[in-house]
Write a structure and sequence with these properties.
Strand content: under 5%
Shape: rod-shaped
Order of helices and strands: HH
Number of strands: 0
Radius of gyration: 27 Å
Number of helices: 2
Largest sheet: none
Distance between the termini: 87 Å
Length: 64
């Protein structure tokens, strides 16, 4: 082979470490995704709660 850039070459992959790495990335993505969804849901719940239970509007508080 005199070609400096061969068309075909073999690569050896350690499958178990690769599988563990991809699983950990998958779990990390799920954790961050669920954390984001949970924070967003808590924000929506808190907004609805305060809108129902606080009778005085903020414009009335600011203008006095």
């Amino acid at each position: 082979m005199n070609d400096a850039y061969p068309v075909n070459f073999e690569i050896e992959i350690d499958r178990e470490p690769l599988k563990r790495h991809l699983r950990s990335q998958h779990r990390t993505a799920w954790v961050y995704g669920m954390l984001f969804v949970g924070v967003f849901a808590c924000f929506l719940w808190a907004t609805a709660y305060f809108n129902r239970h606080i009778a005085v509007s903020w414009t009335a508080v600011v203008s006095t």
